[in-house]
Design goal:
Elements (H helix, E strand, L loop, with lengths): L3 E4 L2 E4 L4 E7 L1 H4 L3 E7 L6 E6 L6 E3 L7 E6 L4 E6 L8 E8 L15 E6 L1
Parallel strand pairs: 2-10
Antiparallel strand pairs: 1-3, 3-8, 4-5, 4-9, 5-6, 7-8, 9-10
């Protein structure tokens, strides 16, 4: 079964930074591009960023481009999301999931608990 554990969320002021981590099982992680998604209260889940299996290619939603950086450590089965210049509209629960390709913007597996990011003004 799919195992995804997100961590690193918290409360931060606008303009601040957070680094999220996603620990996945080897079965879930190995060979897949990985993506980050988020869901704000009362809104649909949306795509944030994706990284290829090798880590050599990335893709970002327009809303976060230039502010967020996705990366991965395959030896640790872990995906990261470095979030800089945070805005109140970034407030959401953040989730990770395998994706079929960087531009698909669709998670392939079941969803974990996510990690809450709250940005105050």
């Amino acid at each position: 079964q799919v195992q995804l554990v997100e961590s690193g969320g918290g409360l931060v002021q606008a303009g601040g930074s957070l680094r999220l981590s996603c620990a996945a099982s080897r079965r879930t992680f190995r060979g897949y591009a990985m993506g980050w998604f988020r869901q704000a209260a009362g809104k649909e889940r949306e795509f944030v960023a994706a990284v290829s299996w090798s880590g050599g290619s990335t893709y970002y939603a327009d809303a976060v481009k230039g502010r967020f950086t996705i990366s991965r450590d395959n030896a640790k089965n872990t995906v990261y999301l470095q979030m800089n210049s945070l805005k109140p509209e970034d407030t959401a629960v953040y989730y990770c999931n395998p994706v079929g390709d960087l531009q698909s913007e669709v998670g392939l597996g079941s969803w974990g608990q996510g990690t809450q990011v709250t940005v105050s003004s």
